[in-house]
Specification:
Annexin, mainly alpha, Annexin V, domain 1, transmembrane helix, 157 residues
């Protein structure tokens, strides 16, 4: 009889502990707003808020090839943009891109419109979308994050 009581008591204690942990997990998820953000992302998967990292940067329009023409705030010439585009293209490969060279190609830019100008020249010269190439080439998350940080630091106004 004593052994039955220990087993039943242990089972009840186990259920209480598991229930308590489950409750804490659910409350943490609710407080962090994860569910709300997931629901918003599900409703509009192409929105900037639904994406992260390089995808978020692309969704922001930073790689729009026409922005520099509308805003007129690029700090590099078309020739410089074409040279940067060539550096990126030369470093890109289906069999393993030189990710450091690609990220470093964005060094020294003075405005977000420079990225647009590079995108324009890249798309024109290589008949490929720079944003798509970056997504394929930057497989190392730290390199992708480094590019995101560089572009996000550029002046936008």
């Amino acid at each position: 009889m004593n052994r039955k009581a220990v087993i039943i008591g242990g089972s009840i204690l186990g259920v209480v502990v598991v229930s308590g942990v489950a409750y804490l997990i659910v409350r943490s998820i609710q407080k962090s707003g994860i569910v709300k953000r997931l629901e918003e992302a599900f409703k509009n998967p192409d929105s900037q808020e639904a994406q992260g990292g390089l995808n978020k940067l692309i969704a922001s329009g930073a790689f729009n090839p026409n922005t520099y023409q509308k805003m007129g705030k690029a700090t590099i010439t078309l020739l410089e943009a074409r040279e940067i585009a060539k550096r990126i293209w030369d470093a890109y490969s289906w069999f393993g891109s030189d990710q450091s060279t690609i990220v470093n190609a964005f060094n020294g830019l003075g405005h977000l419109n420079d990225v647009s100008k590079i995108t324009h020249e890249f798309n024109e010269s290589y008949d490929s979308d720079l944003a798509e190439v970056l997504l394929e080439a930057l497989t190392d998350k730290s390199k992708a994050n480094s590019l995101v940080a560089k572009v996000n630091k550029l002046p936008k106004n």
